[in-house]
Amino acid sequence: MIRYKAIISLAALIFLFVGNTSSQEKQQSFKPGELWPDNNGVHINAHGGGILKYEGTYFWFGEHKTEGEAGNRANVGVHCYSSKDLYNWKDEGIALAVSQDPESEIVKGCVIERPKVIFNQKTKKFVMWFHLELKSMGYKAARTGLAVADSPTGPFRYIKSLNPNAGQWPINFTKEQKEMQFPANLKSWSVEWKNAVANGMFIHRDFEKGQMARDMTLFVDDDGKAYHIHSSEENLTLHISELNDDYTDFTKNFATVMPAGHNEAPAIFKKEGKYFLITSGCTGWTPNAARSFVADHILGPWTELGNPCRGTEEEMKTTFESQSTFILENPDNTGQYIFMADRWRPKNAIDGRYIWLPILFEEGKPTLKWMDNWDLSNIDYVTSLND
Ligand code: GAL
């Protein structure tokens, strides 16, 4: 009798287990803007994210948001998910947890945004950089933070934060720009002020202490060199900085991109030897029109290609109500690129949605068109920039 009961309990357990795992319907496509359930049926919580492919598995890292407006602060940390097919994501938990120690730079309540992870072949470490704002200082600190782990899902150890490139001029600065003097109290947004910004007024201001670093991404080039790309100079100019061989520091080799161009949310990819950047303007959580750029060398010069979005006026003005965060080249199918963006929900941060769209090309320019439902097989990709 006892044995009979045990068999029934075991059967019930198996039923429960199988029932549970199969209750989450398998995803077979991307549905931009909709709730995106993970393996537990919970909306993915990895905003401002980026993706790393390591040993056949994709790892998605992003900001773990919580409910309400305060949910935009780092109350929990950086969330990690894994996937084999990019449609179905398994919750791998918190890769970098905020600290409970009030002395820590990543204490609960600070701001951790746009975390990106790359793998260093030499040290075999997973290296995460992210935009860090110190607790109770609004967005003033403008630092970049570093955390390192031995496994892609973490735990990541927080190492340090910094304002990069202290004491260093951009490689594309002229002698005149290095020696320039700027009149005090220029009126913000006046022509004189914009010229001064374009000539490095803020680089001069922050020269000793290091430059500001807000919205950011990382890029590893074919030769293994990694770059940290971020909005600097009060969000007016993008900086592209080379990282050292371990990816854990700046080499001080950096260039400015689109001085005074007011670009945020940088996302980058390389196709046929050309580098492409997609960015946004600076309107906080409110979406604006995306911009795109091309260069033959990662440190520039960069050329403007215009708004990559195609569609209605509203779609073009708001980037389909989203802001860029990352561009993933499908390592299984080179030539396919996925544009990843966030539809922020500032009043209830945790409800933010993901806008993933294929990057199409028109006359050598990356373009984006709205799709309600798409998968990697139903896209007619342009494989050559000359097509
Ligand atoms: C956006 C930025 C986000 C976040 C937000 C805060 O412009 O891209 O990452 O910093 O501002 O208002």
Number of strands: 22
Structural class computed from helices and strand pairing: mainly beta
CATH architecture level-2 label of the domain at 263-387:
5 Propeller
Report low-confidence residues grouped into runs of 5 or more: 4-8, 10-22
CATH superfamily membership of the domain at 263-387: Glycosyl hydrolase domain, family 43
Multimeric status of the protein: single chain
CATH topology of the domain at 263-387: Tachylectin-2, Chain A
Task: Give the distinct bound molecules.
Answer: beta-D-galactopyranose
- Helical content class: 10-25%
N-to-C SSE series?
Answer: HEEEEEEEEHHHEEEEEEEEEHEEEEE
User: Which of globular, elongated, flat, extended, rod-shaped describes the shape?
Assistant: globular
The strand line-up of the biggest sheet is 1-2-3-4
Largest sheet properties: 4 strands, antiparallel
Cα-to-Cα separation, first versus last residue: 74 Å
Determine the strand fraction and express it as a percent band. 35-45%
Radius of gyration: 22 Å
Q: Assign the CATH class of the domain at 263-387.
A: Mainly Beta
How much is the average pLDDT?
A: 93
Question: How many distinct helices?
Answer: 5
List the helices and strands and how they pair.
Layout lengths: L1 H22 L23 E8 L2 E7 L13 E7 L6 E8 L13 E10 L4 E9 L9 E7 L7 E6 L12 H5 L11 H8 L2 H5 L10 E5 L5 E7 L4 E7 L6 E8 L6 E8 L2 E7 L10 E5 L6 E5 L2 E2 L2 H6 L4 E7 L7 E7 L9 E6 L1 E3 L2 E5 L18
Parallel strand pairs: 17-22
Antiparallel strand pairs: 1-2, 2-3, 3-4, 5-6, 6-7, 7-8, 9-10, 10-11, 11-12, 13-14, 14-15, 15-16, 18-19, 19-20, 21-22
